[in-house]
Amino acid sequence: MAPKKQNGHSASLLNKSMKQRKKLAKREARAMLTMEQIKLAVQKAEQKVAKAQKKLEDRQAHLKVFEAQVSAIQEESQQSSESQQ
User: Rounded to whole angstroms, how far apart are CA atoms 31 and 58?
Assistant: First the structure.
């Protein structure tokens, strides 16, 4: 049996309501997808920042080693010049 037809007005309202819900669901799905993409981009950026921070710390430690070496050389040079005088 074919479904009973509703009057034209209520069918039109029902159809409009369904279209609106479908439209809203599509908009929500797009927003969720965009949100997931943004979350991934943020994670990637955080990883880059962490990597850069590690690199910076390594280079600062390396610099301190060289500064200590230069300081030791300068002290040695100063002591040798004082002993020659």
Answer: 40
Q: Do 51 and 43 form a contact (C-beta atoms < 8 A)?
A: no
Predicted TM-score of the model (pTM)? 0.60
Q: Which domain holds residue 67?
A: 55-85
Q: For residues 2 and 21, what is the distance between their CA atoms, to the nearest angstrom?
A: 26
Asked whether residue 46 is assigned to any structural domain, the reply reads: no
Does residue 71 lie within any of the structural domains? yes
Under the banding of pLDDT at 50, 70 and 90, the label for residue 80 is confident
Write the CA distances from 18 to 21, 24, 25, 63, 78, integer angstroms: 5, 10, 10, 67, 88
The tally of domains found in the chain comes to 1
